[in-house]
Design brief:
Blueprint lengths: L9 E8 L7 E7 L3 E5 L5 E6 L4 E2 L7 E4 L7 E4 L2 H19 L2 H19 L3 H12 L2 H19 L6 H13 L7 E4 L6 E3 L5 E4 L1 H4 L4 H17 L2 H9 L1 H10 L4 H13 L7 H11 L4 H7 L7 H5 L14 H8 L5
Parallel strand pairs: 8-10
Antiparallel strand pairs: 1-2, 1-7, 2-3, 3-4, 5-6, 6-7, 9-10
Length: 337
């Protein structure tokens, strides 16, 4: 489905740049129901842009240059006239609806609001919070996550960054097939790992420095990535902050600074949600990594993690190393002495 019913499927090529300092990259652009989907030439999605939020940076000029927000640091260049026309039509429809709400629309909105208020005692808070979290586009999740990263850094310290460690983390992300997740090693404040609303995972330096093999780090990252898939931290944040925060985010796309600060602190204190052995073993097998090192790092006796140890899919074989030795050594030195 697409946002305009006359198009069953609309795709074109484009040139995407993630930021001001990033290289331009050829992508495939798909026009969806509520988003523009940018993918590489292997059909692997790179990012999603909310169609209503897309801004044209050069009206009237060709090729068209778009951005997911008014900031304009991330851009997409499109030459296909059909795709450009489709995007412009969506924007015209949105503008027309905003400019001429009409009495009927007002009455409908009032009636809907009354119905929601009437039902709110029973189901609205949870339903609205879950609905709001499901609507937040990737761009906004990234904004919220960046704000949380700044807030939590007051406790964790700034992420440890060196050219060698950054290269090693990018290799680890690829090795674990994490998709859009990003890994950061932080000096303190995190028990082991924690994830932000856009999938970013913060790693305590101890997981890098205190173990001789990178399989342990990989195991903790795999477990955290599974939690990120099973539980949406944005949804959790809205449940903790209350219905008014959800309504404000839904209507204005903004979250109070106090809400972010409170949630950032709670995030670092929260206990891990358990991940089943079956899910963990399937994930370890999918990326060809041993489960036993992670299991023994959690419980050196192996008593509470015996299921992972005995069912380790690579107990008798040696899979491809998680990281080359040079990258692992460079990553271990990320936070310095």
């Amino acid at each position: 489905m697409t946002a305009l019913p006359e198009y069953e499927r609309l795709e074109t090529s484009g040139i995407w740049r993630e930021g001001d300092d990033a290289q331009r990259r050829d992508v495939v652009v798909s026009f969806g129901d509520a988003t523009l989907v940018l993918a590489d030439h292997n059909d692997t999605p790179i990012t999603h842009w909310s169609l209503p939020a897309v801004v044209r940076l050069n009206p009237g000029n060709h090729p068209a240059i778009y951005s997911p927000d008014a900031d304009g640091s991330e851009t997409l260049e499109i030459s296909d006239e059909v795709m450009i026309e489709a995007i412009e039509r969506v924007h015209k429809i949105i503008a027309r609806r905003r400019a001429r709400p009409g009495r009927l629309r007002w009455l409908l909105m009032a009636g809907t609001s009354a119905a929601l208020v009437g039902a709110g005692v029973f189901w609205l808070p949870d339903a609205l919070i879950n609905y709001t979290a499901s609507l937040i586009p990737e761009v906004k999740r990234n904004d919220i996550s960046r704000s949380l990263l700044v807030q939590t850094s007051r406790v964790t310290g700034a992420p440890c960054v060196t050219p060698t460690s950054t290269r090693a983390l990018r290799k680890l992300e690829q090795r674990l097939n994490l998709g859009h997740e990003q890994l950061f090693v932080v000096p303190t404040g995190v028990k082991d790992t924690v994830h932000l609303p856009n999938g970013t995972i913060l790693i305590n330096r101890a997981l890098v420095e205190d173990f001789e093999e990178p399989e342990v780090l990989a195991g903790f990252v795999i477990a955290e990535a599974l939690r990120a898939k099973n539980t949406d931290p944005l949804e959790t944040m809205l449940h903790e902050s209350g219905l008014l925060s959800a309504v404000k985010l839904l209507t204005t796309s903004e979250i109070d600074k106090d809400t972010l600060n409170a949630y950032g602190a709670a995030l670092l204190r929260a206990e891990h949600i358990p991940v089943s052995d079956d899910d963990l073993l399937a994930a370890f097998e999918a990326v060809k990594i041993r489960a036993a090192p992670y299991a023994l790092a959690i419980d050196i006796s192996g008593e509470t993690t015996i299921g992972l140890i005995e069912a380790d899919p690579f107990a008798k074989t040696l899979p491809t190393p998680v990281l080359p030795d040079g990258d692992w050594i460079g990553l271990q030195a990320a936070c310095g002495a």
